[in-house]
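Box 4.2: Ligand-aware structure prediction
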Amino acid sequence: MNYNIAVIRGDGIGPEIVTEAVRALDAAAKRFGFSLTYRDVPMGGCAIDEFGTPLPKDTVSVCKDSDAVLLGAVGGPKWETLPGHLRPEAGLLGIRAALGLYANLRPAVLFDPLRDACPLKPEIVSGGLDILMVRELTGGIYFGERGRSTGERGEEAYDTERYSTFEIERIGRIGFESARKRSKKLTSVDKANVLESSRLWRETMHRLAKEYPDVACDDMLVDNAAMQLVRNPARFDVVVTSNLFGDILSDEASMITGSIGMLPSASLGGGTLGLYEPIHGSAPDIAGTDAANPLATILSAAMLLRYSLNQPQAADAIDRAVAKALDEGYRTADIAAGRRAIGTREMGKIVCRLIETT
Ligand code: NAD
C-alpha cells in the first residue's frame, strides 16, 4: 500500500519540525508495512518570495491529488507589512477553502510527565485531560453577512451567525464518528437558550443522535462549557461546536495542557483528504536554532495516519512513542522546566527509535 502525502514545510521552524514528522511517518510506515511518497509544495512566506503569491496554483492541485497534507507553519516578520491577501496567512485560509475542509479537530491532552505545565490545580486534573475539540470551520458568524451603518446613537456594526441543517449535520457526523473512535461520549456545545441558530444546532444534533445509539450525547451551553473546562475537564471527551464557540473553547482547552509545542490539529472535509498541522505558528524567534519542539507536528502526523490513511495502529505507535519519550525524561527547551533540554533533531530521533520498539 502506498500513499501520497503533500508536504508544506512553510516558514520559520516549519522546515525543521516537518523533517522530524516525516521521519516519524517513515518509521511508522516501515513498522506497519506500507509506504509513503512525499511531494514538497510551497506555501506562505517562502512561496511569496519565490512565486509572488502565498498559495501557488500548483500547490493546490498537488494537495488535491494527495491522500493527505502535512503542514509545518507559515508567516514571519518579513511578510507582516504586505496587504492581507498577499500575506502568508492568506495561504492557510486559501488551502482550507480549496480543499473544502470544514471540520477542525484539536486534541488537548495533558501528558502525565508534563503535569507541572498545567495552570490548573493538581486536584482538578487528577482525573487526567484528554479532550477532542471538533470545531465547525467554514460557517457561522465568521462567514455570515456583516456590515456597518449609522443608527440613532451613531455608528453601528453587525455580524450574522447563520447555520444550515446541512452544515450542522456534516460537522455533527464528524463529532459522532470521532466519539465512536474514542470513548463514545459526545458533548454538543451551543447557546440554545438565546440564539435561534443554536436551537437549530441542538434540534439537528438530537436528530442525528438517533443514528448513533452507541454514542452518549449531551448538550451544554457554551458559558457552562467554558466553566466546566477549568472546573472539571475530565467530564469531557469529544466536544462538537460551532466556528465561534470552537475558536474560543479550543484555545481554552489548549492552554490547560500548558504547552503550545505539544498540540496537533487536523482539518477535514467530506472525504478522507485532510490537512494536518501543529497549532503553533512559525516561531521566527527560534527558527534555525534546533530549539523547536517537533512533537506537535509529529502528533499531527499521527492524526494524518488515523484520519486520512486509516492506519490506526501506526498512529497509536507514534502516540505511544511520544508519551514514552516524555516518560523517559526527554524534553525540548519549551517544556524542559529546568531539566536538560535536547534539540529538535535529537527529539525526532528518539521518537523514531521508540516508534520502532514501543
Ligand atoms: P508562535 O506560535 O509562532 O510562537 C509563540 C511563542 O511560542 C514563541 O515564543 C515561540 O518561540 C514559541 N513556540 C511556538 N512553537 C514552538 C515550538 N514548536 N517549540 C518551541 N517553542 C515554540 O506565534 P507568534 O509568535 O504569534 O507567530 C509567529 C508567526 O507565525 C506569525 O507570522 C504568525 O502569523 C504565524 N502563525 C502561523 C500559524 C500557522 O501557520 N498555522 C499559526 C499561528 C501563527
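In the box above, the bound molecule is nicotinamide-adenine-dinucleotide. The mean pLDDT is 95.
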